[in-house]
Design brief:
Length: about 190
């Protein structure tokens, strides 16, 4: 089979600081902040480099989304903390970072018979009249795949890129073992 072909498309992380954040001060300091406390209790901050979207709450909890690499979370966290401090808010604690989800899209390099796959794969759901892809929940590693007949896949639920690689490798092995995927002959 061809070399794994995938790309991380979203990394979601939680960042917690043990200090309350005055969202009003941050919203006044920065013009590129979205904050409407009547509609949503947090503010929305967008960073350009690395590209990220941050939901920030007064409790010190934040959700960072939109990253394309795990390693960017440290840089984004430093940038957020710097912006908070520049707004005149003291932060006494070190931020705690936890990757919650890594999502990737890829290509298995071969067409997949989804009807057959839905019968042979345990924990697979395929309802083509509702959604064109097969949903497959793998238990080890614990990830979820969207598999399309073209061989395109989306993998979610991983905590690291290594788990994505492992999940794709095991998916290919299962599909090949069940004769659902064929190697392309060059």
């Amino acid at each position: 089979m061809a070399k794994d072909s995938y790309k991380v498309v979203n990394v979601v992380a939680s960042v917690t600081i043990d200090d309350e954040i005055d969202l009003y001060r941050i919203a006044r300091k920065y013009k590129d902040i979205e904050w409407n406390p009547e509609r949503f209790p947090g503010l929305i901050m967008r960073l350009i480099k690395p590209k990220a979207c941050i939901l920030m709450f007064h409790t010190g909890k934040m959700v960072v989304t939109g990253l394309s690499r795990e390693k960017d979370i440290d840089e984004v966290t430093k940038s957020i903390v710097e912006k908070i401090k520049n707004a005149g808010i003291a932060i006494k604690s070190e931020p705690k970072i936890k990757i919650q989800n890594v999502v990737a899209s890829g290509d298995l390099g071969s067409e997949i018979n989804l009807d057959l796959a839905s019968i042979l794969l345990k924990r697979a759901i395929y309802e083509p009249e509702v959604f064109p892809g097969l949903i497959f929940r793998m238990t080890e590693p614990k990830v979820a795949f969207l598999i399309f007949s073209t061989g395109r896949i989306v993998i979610a639920g991983a905590k690291t890129e290594d788990i994505i690689k492992d999940g794709i490798k095991k998916l290919k092995e299962q599909l090949k073992e069940l004769d659902i995927i064929k190697e392309k002959v060059s």
